[in-house]
Amino acid sequence: MEDVIWRQHNGSCELRKKTPNVNRRIDRKLELERWRRRYQEAQRKRLRKALRTAKSGRFHAHPSRGKGPGGSRQPPPVFLKVPKRVDLADAESDTCPLIEAMKENVRSGRRVLLDFQDVETIRPGALVYLLAQVHKLRMEFGHERVTGSYPVSARVDRLLEQSGFYSLLNVKSRKEAKIPNKLLRYIRFRSDQKLNAAVVGEIRDELLRADLTMPAVVRRTVFRAVTEAMANVNHHAYLNKAVRTPQAADRWWMLASLNVPKNRFTLVFYDAGVGIPKTLPLRYPIEVIRRIVSLLPGFEPDDGQMIDAAMQLGRTRTAMHNRGKGLQDLARLIDEVAGGMMRITSRHGCYTYTHGSGQPSKSYGFLEGTLIEWQLPLSEALDELPDDLHDKASHDS
Amino acid sequence: MTKPHMTLKIAEDFSKEPAGRYRGDGDASGEVFREERLIPALKKFDRVTVDLDGTEGYGSSFLEEAFGGLLRSYGMNLASFESRVELRSQEDPSLIDEILQYVKEQDARSSKSAKH
Fold it and tell me: Where are the domains of chain A?
């Protein structure tokens, strides 16, 4: 009995023998146990701190304190810190890797807590991508899989509320976030699985409210661009793509905003399909695509060049197909409105179009599907601004 | 015996929001307009005027399928299209040129495939 001792460790007893090898094994086990407890405590502290700093807490009750379907405790969620600047066109912002990490964790059966507390700005394109991916994951894996903490910035809070991000997550918005702002307007995001032309008029009315109007030519071109983008989703975007739930099939998301101080009207359209660089080679031989983007035989076009080729093939009047002109309708909005810009991002490629000329490039990270963003100067996209808004626009810009 | 003339106003007789190419795109698509409005009108009347005004706008896939598709599915050619279909738009006259372009392109494709 002398060679056996009992050792107390955090309320549990361990049998310890006075044999060196056994002792080493027990020590290692105890050490691991201590690290595991320290890690769990650190996770709890981090969550408590995040909640204190974010003033009014996370979106949902902490999942690790709830019990799973079998009555067992669920592991704590994986914390993902949302970058300060959420922007797809910013090399410094890690928006695409963040979204990829969120998808990977959810698909591996883990829960994710998006930590918004340090976020200072969110660009509309990045917001639509994030929002759509959260929406899709919640449809596919259940609503409890993605949650998050409220941002500290009141502006970001208002943006998440007005764009419908909070309502998508079924979370309560804070009172201050609901106050409408005349200078920075967001519509609630729209999403559907079919071509829904009525949405165009709805978002226009919601954005312009009673005090702003849009010239007929801009109205018609916006209608053309958006309905063609919806038709493209129906015809090409989800070609043979496996989706986990019927609700995710052929789905698109849309958001529009109006920023008076920055003199900017923004419209974003996104689908989570296979992406233009994957669908184009199914419709045109690779030799035709190479010729269009002036590549020598043997060279593979990158994703940006694929989008460029898709745009150019739609423009070619001698194209062998009666279809494929829809992408040209997207650019027409920029041709009609002076000073506008369109950016198409798909997979690893990007294509930026300003009046009459397009430029392919590589995107900062991988984007699932296709995201189209139109930016128009307010002074061109709208009729005369009312005096109060006009003063603000000229003063701030 | 067919009657001489009729006017088809898309905004009133079809939809204020015409969009999409195929029937699968919705009830206001180019295919639905062609099959349920334009072709029945062409069967009854010698000449049909299509009034494009009053809608929210038009996408290229609607216009191509509705008018270019007439050559594919109704057996018309450029000459018969020009003699039997009149296009009218005061709000956006560029639509007429756009439609005629689609019809000419389809006519060229049809002639090419007929030769082969």
Answer: 1-180, 181-397
